[in-house]
Amino acid sequence: MKPYTELLDFKTLGDDRGSLVALEENYNTPFAIKRVYYIFETKSGVRRGYHAHKYLKQLAICISGSCTFLLEDGTTKKDIFLDSPNKGLLIEGLVWREMYDFSEDCILLILASEHFNEDDYIRDYDTFLKLATS
Ligand code: TYD
Predict the structure, then answer these.
(1) Taking the complete model, does pTM exceed 0.85, yes or no?
(2) In the chain, what are the domain boundaries?
(3) What is the whole-number distance in angstroms between the Cα of residue 83 and the centre of ligand 1?
(4) Are 101 and 67 contacting, i.e. CB atoms less than 8 angstroms apart?
């Protein structure tokens, strides 16, 4: 699977009571969802992630607060700032990711295409670079 990242816009349904975003599998999510997890109460100054995945597809949504993703495909690096519940960062293929600058109120929701599998992780940066550039 080729490395691919994209910032998706979700339609916000709103009325005078407030806002709502609905995510429906394979309709406005680009893959079938097998797992949902969320990262919250991240301590100040913490940087996490530091891995790539072999097959996993993920959609990251900052449903509260903000944080930044560093994404690297082996040749280019980019930083994506997430601060909106109606934006989703799609990450597919071999992409190194680090997350940082979590606001105190950050809740980072992740939709994932597979169940948790440690064997799908590449946690060593040099191994990632070798695979990404081979
Ligand atoms: P990890 O993926 O290393 O966190 P991050 O990349 O966001 O810094 O996960 C932290 C720990 O939680 C690790 O021991 C694996 C475990 N974990 C699960 O058991 N299930 C999951 O779905 C996830 C994402 C992590």
Answers:
(1) yes
(2) 4-132
(3) 22
(4) yes
